[in-house]
Amino acid sequence: MHDTGSPSSLIQPELIRLGCQPADKEAAIRLAGQLLADAGCIDPAYIDSLLRREAVANTFLGNGLAIPHGMVEDRQLIRRTGIAIVQIPDGLEWNPGQRTRLLFAIAAQSDEHITLLRRLTRLLQDEVRLEQLFNARDAAQVQALLEETPPAAAGEAAAADLAERAQWIVDYPNGLHARPAAQWVEAARRHAAQLQVRHGQDAADAKNLISLLQLGLRHGDTVTVSAQGPDDAAALAALLSAMRDASAQEQTDAALAAQKAQLLAAQQGWIPPGHPLSIAGVAASPGLAIGVVRVLHAGQLKVPDRPVALGEGGDRLHEALSATRAELSELAAATASRLGKAEAGIFHAQAELLSDTDLITLTCQLMVGGHGVEWAWHQAVERMAERLAALGNPLLAARAADLRDVGRRVLRQLDPALNSATLADIDGDDCILLAADLTPSDTATLDTGRIRALATAQGGPTSHTAILARTLGLPALVAGGPALLDIADGTPAILDGVGGRLYLNPGEQDLASARDWLQTQQRTQQQQAEQRQRPAITPDGHRVEIAANINRPDQVAAALDAGAEGVGLMRTEFLFLEREQSPSEDEQFHTYSAMLDALDGRPLIVRALDIGGDKQVDYLKLPAEENPFLGMRGSRLLLRRRDLLEPQLRALYRAARSGQPLSIMFPMITSLKEITRLKGWCEGIRRELDAPAVPLGIMVEVPAAALLADQLAEYVDFFSIGTNDLTQYTLAMDRQHPELAAEADSLHPAVLRLIQHTVAGAARHQRWVGVCGGIAGDPFGAALLTGLGVAELSMSPRDVAAVKAKLCANGHDRLRELAQQALACDSADEVRMLARELT
Ligand code: PEP
Ligand code: MG
């Protein structure tokens, strides 16, 4: 939006009346209208148009300001654009509960009045200046207060530098993006002086984040920084030092990115020769997919246009903005304490976007134009984001993503229902589905005939969505950030589920290389697949059991065909999801029996219900918890909900009467007390049903269980380590956290040490240890676990062939040595680099 009217031509002393006391709203509007008519701006008939508008819309803007304006269809009654200002120091009731002290009657032929509207919206937030305006004694003072130069609007280049100036060369490897820009703004705003940053012909107000970002500064650009005003020398020095201070952080970030690339090479991932633009996320499900992007985002959200009175709309917008600011500041504080100040900066930067004058003005204008607040806000955000995205600069495109992200936060505040999008909207073939996040049930029901890969802005690699993607064989990345959702629908892309990147608009060379890579992969997979039925025995004769993580009897045949030797984890909570009520004891009995029958004598380990965390079951009406992963989850819930535990155990023991090899294990065990109570339940039910004893194990998912493994082992028959949860609880990183996902790596040496401790504890009582978390299905992870002494690995069936191939190719002694090396590493990345040392 550009200012098209010169401020001084709009605010004229003869159109200002001070100290008025009109009897009512109509008298006030007539007075303002008369001023406009007397000055030759309107035909007197337009005064009625001003009054008619009041009958259909509320022109109260908030904080004592009202902006009466005529009906659009009466525009021919306007002779020239003008604005009449009527000051009512004692205030006048405009609508019940709304008092106007200053009214601006607008007669606008086109959009010249936008300059004034922009100032008014800024004024709404500036109580000191408002008070001065309400009490001004002469027209010149009103004029001066209103004409104070606004910040340079986006896109308005000011080529001249200010009085004090200096040059600086941008040394941020990724150019100027939101986080350092917000630091510049913060430093600039501490000073009264006007501060400007100029690059070539383009200049930006250093106190305005969007205007700075629109400069699109890249590494190596020279900028002229200048200041003017009372403390200009100090202001200039402070801004320059903020610019330099951000350099170190920017360079560290870039170095980390380079390290990641090295890591990718170690993992033998695909590296595109043409360096197409890409978005980085976290690898969640391996494979490469070539396709076109289909975005499932709030842009497809139908934001309804529900006009409300302007005042009410303004109040709701104000509240939503405040609530979002509070939400962002909480997020920033939480991020600062978890990750550090620099990482929290992005949320400060997002909060800055909320105060952007252009954005708020545009929203107010759309509301004044008769639109509903949600619609107006959404439109304003989309228009500004499109403008940023259209500049063709990836950095600014990412800012557009931030703007949309923050825009959605505000929309959610305005109407919580404006938060969803539906998979049914996705059509076409060879789709690479992009979404903010997907629920496990969304993922489970994806049409894999058309959807080739998926990428989510949020989520983590061990979230259940990622697990399901692996099961479905869909390459996936998670935690790609909000920029993902700003990619245009239909953009050709390549998704790399090993490197965790989405490459956009790949060139012919990239496509050819991706096809080659896929072919090589297919050949390797084919070779591995041909040998998938062999046991996993290392060349020096050490055997590891390979089992599948599956949940339904109809998946057994495929799992066995994939080379699985049994089922190491049947997540029974999936029997409880996506339905209206819990499955009955009989229904469960039939499912477990069918599972055993399909396995035909091979082992089945059924995990008792693990509800809670990210697996919520609405009909159970469990109380909402502040920290569901730390709350009533898994066995903790089972011990409190006999109605869930008892039918499940009865169904399991009834199935065990067939004599087939069934084991039961309990999730989220933290203490011996839980084990003894659960075993008590099992024994009671077993006796009642006269069923055989079955092996009872526990999942080791909490550091407490790993640390006490030597004690717990005495009471259970086996351990199965749930590395997905063990990782999140060891590292204190939510397995679904979008920003922490990359670090929440199960190969973290701290997690490996807990696994080693568990194996050692179990060995004291001759118990076996399995791993059924995601890392068991990563061939390199499986090799390390074998080196640590894990005896059984349970994984998604599609991972079986590759894991077997890795174990069959590397000697147990070598794996043991490698595991010792991994235990001595200081980071998961360092552990992953060891992958180079295996065949
Ligand atoms: C785990 O935590 O590693 C595990 C296998 O359980 P789930 O992923 O179902 O929580
Ligand atoms: Mg778990």
UniProtKB/TrEMBL annotation:
<dbReference type="InterPro" id="IPR002178">
    <property type="entry name" value="PTS_EIIA_type-2_dom"/>
</dbReference>
<feature type="region of interest" description="Disordered">
    <location>
        <begin position="520"/>
        <end position="540"/>
    </location>
</feature>
<dbReference type="InterPro" id="IPR023151">
    <property type="entry name" value="PEP_util_CS"/>
</dbReference>
<dbReference type="InterPro" id="IPR008279">
    <property type="entry name" value="PEP-util_enz_mobile_dom"/>
</dbReference>
<dbReference type="Pfam" id="PF00359">
    <property type="entry name" value="PTS_EIIA_2"/>
</dbReference>
<dbReference type="InterPro" id="IPR000032">
    <property type="entry name" value="HPr-like"/>
</dbReference>
<keyword id="KW-0597">Phosphoprotein</keyword>
<dbReference type="InterPro" id="IPR016152">
    <property type="entry name" value="PTrfase/Anion_transptr"/>
</dbReference>
<dbReference type="InterPro" id="IPR040442">
    <property type="entry name" value="Pyrv_kinase-like_dom_sf"/>
</dbReference>
<dbReference type="Pfam" id="PF05524">
    <property type="entry name" value="PEP-utilisers_N"/>
</dbReference>
<feature type="compositionally biased region" description="Low complexity">
    <location>
        <begin position="520"/>
        <end position="530"/>
    </location>
</feature>
<keyword id="KW-0762">Sugar transport</keyword>
<keyword id="KW-0598">Phosphotransferase system</keyword>
<dbReference type="InterPro" id="IPR006318">
    <property type="entry name" value="PTS_EI-like"/>
</dbReference>
<dbReference type="InterPro" id="IPR015813">
    <property type="entry name" value="Pyrv/PenolPyrv_kinase-like_dom"/>
</dbReference>
<keyword id="KW-0479">Metal-binding</keyword>
<keyword id="KW-0963">Cytoplasm</keyword>
<dbReference type="InterPro" id="IPR008731">
    <property type="entry name" value="PTS_EIN"/>
</dbReference>
<dbReference type="InterPro" id="IPR035895">
    <property type="entry name" value="HPr-like_sf"/>
</dbReference>
<dbReference type="InterPro" id="IPR000121">
    <property type="entry name" value="PEP_util_C"/>
</dbReference>
<dbReference type="InterPro" id="IPR050499">
    <property type="entry name" value="PEP-utilizing_PTS_enzyme"/>
</dbReference>
<dbReference type="Pfam" id="PF02896">
    <property type="entry name" value="PEP-utilizers_C"/>
</dbReference>
<dbReference type="Pfam" id="PF00381">
    <property type="entry name" value="PTS-HPr"/>
</dbReference>
<keyword id="KW-0460">Magnesium</keyword>
<dbReference type="InterPro" id="IPR001020">
    <property type="entry name" value="PTS_HPr_His_P_site"/>
</dbReference>
<dbReference type="GO" id="GO:0008965">
    <property type="term" value="F:phosphoenolpyruvate-protein phosphotransferase activity"/>
</dbReference>
<dbReference type="InterPro" id="IPR036618">
    <property type="entry name" value="PtsI_HPr-bd_sf"/>
</dbReference>
<feature type="domain" description="HPr">
    <location>
        <begin position="163"/>
        <end position="251"/>
    </location>
</feature>
<dbReference type="InterPro" id="IPR018274">
    <property type="entry name" value="PEP_util_AS"/>
</dbReference>
<dbReference type="InterPro" id="IPR036637">
    <property type="entry name" value="Phosphohistidine_dom_sf"/>
</dbReference>
<feature type="domain" description="PTS EIIA type-2">
    <location>
        <begin position="9"/>
        <end position="149"/>
    </location>
</feature>
<keyword id="KW-0418">Kinase</keyword>
<keyword id="KW-0813">Transport</keyword>
<protein>
    <recommendedName>
        <fullName>phosphoenolpyruvate--protein phosphotransferase</fullName>
        <ecNumber>2.7.3.9</ecNumber>
    </recommendedName>
</protein>
<keyword id="KW-0808">Transferase</keyword>
<comment type="similarity">
    <text>Belongs to the PEP-utilizing enzyme family.</text>
</comment>
<dbReference type="Pfam" id="PF00391">
    <property type="entry name" value="PEP-utilizers"/>
</dbReference>
